[in-house]
Amino acid sequence: MTTGRRSRSRDRWGREPAADLDTGPDADPESVARTILLDQLTGRARTRAELADKLASKGVPDEVGHRLLDRFEEVGLVDDSAFAREWVEQRQRGRGLARRALAQELRRKGVDDEVAREALEEVDGDAEEASARRLVQARLRTVSTLDRDRATRRLVGMLARKGHSSATAFRVVRSELDAVGLERDDDPEVDGL
């Protein structure tokens, strides 16, 4: 028994696909590409490389894609520099990522190395250390039952996965463990027990 409604696939946000998008063999590649680009830019900013990959995956001819991407850059809808600055600021503040991890993410997104370098120059070393300190402080409760060496390894490993240098990681972890009073294993008071 049918209800008279056609089942249509939805995207990951629950939206129905655009009804006017004709992707058949007679479809105008430029209007298809324009619709794809606008749909991609609706949720968040994207890099030129991400958009070019999306157009290629949908079968849009390269010359049409390049022409439209150039036009979108001219009017400011695609701006890799602005994307990189915003990405670095959000990921550094929100996830506590260090320059190294941010550079890898930008590279994966297709941002030019020079553009990425300019965006990463805005990350202050003190801010990077402060974010590492916040990450460690947030995890201290989960390592409070461990001995100091094991806690140190876990916390330093977590910071390394976030792209922090080993020098920064060890300095921050040592400082924070000292602040909460987690005793050193080589402490004579502990050895005497």
Automatic annotation (TrEMBL):
Domain RecX second three-helical: residue ranges: 79-120
Key words of the record: Cytoplasm
Location in or out of the cell: Cytoplasm
Protein name: Regulatory protein RecX
GO cellular component, one term: cytoplasm
HAMAP family according to UniProt: RecX (MF_01114)
Domain (RecX first three-helical) ranges: 33-71
Segment forming the signal sequence: none
A Pfam match: RecX_HTH1
InterPro entries for the chain: RecX_HTH_1st, RecX_HTH_2nd, Regulatory_RecX, WH-like_DNA-bd_sf
The species this protein was found in: Nocardioides aurantiacus
GO biological process, one term: regulation of DNA repair
Family: Belongs to the RecX family.
